[in-house]
Amino acid sequence: MSEKRTSADRSTQSARARLDTPGGGWRGFNIDVEAVGRVSESIARFLGTGKYLLIQTVVVIVWIILNVAAVGLQWDPYPFILLNLAFSTQAAYAAPLILLAQNRQENRDRVSLEEDRSRAEQTKADTEFLARELASLRLAVGEVATRDYLRRELDEIKSLLAAREDDEDPQPKR
C-alpha cells in the first residue's frame, strides 16, 4: 500500500522538487516581498534625484578636504582607498535595487498594457456591433416611407383627384 501514492501526494512532491515553485521561506523568517519591493523602489527613486547627487557631492568634498587639509584627522590618506570602497559598496547595492525597481515597473507596465489591449479589443467589438446595427437600421429605414416620399405621393394623388374632378365636371361652376 505504501507504493500507491495519491495524485495529491505526487503533485505536492513534484511541486517541491520544481525550481520555479517558491519554497516555504526560511525557517521562522518570513520576508514580505512587496514591502522589500516598495522600499527598494523608494531608494532607487531617491538615487536618481538631484538632491542625492548634491548630498553625495558635498560628502565627497568634505571627505577629501578633511583627509588632505586636516593632518590630524587623516583616516583615509590621498589615494582615498576607503572612499573608493564606499563607492564600490554603494554601487554594489544600488545596481540591484535599480534593477528590482525596473522589474517591478515592467510588471506594472505589462499589466497596464494587457488591460489596455483588452479594453481596445472590447471597444473594437462594440464599434463593429454598432456599425452592424447602424447598417441594419439604414436598410430598414430604406424600406420605410419617408416624409418626402409621402408628400410626393399625396401631391400626386391630389393632382389625380383634381384631374378626375375636372374630367367629371365639364361645365365650370359659377
UniProtKB/TrEMBL annotation:
Segments for region (Disordered): 1-21
Ranges annotated as spanning the membrane: 52-75, 81-101
Record key words, sorted: Membrane, Transmembrane, Transmembrane helix
| Record keyword Transmembrane present | yes
The superkingdom listed in its UniProt entry is Bacteria
Query: Would you tell me the protein name for this molecule?
Result: DUF1003 domain-containing protein
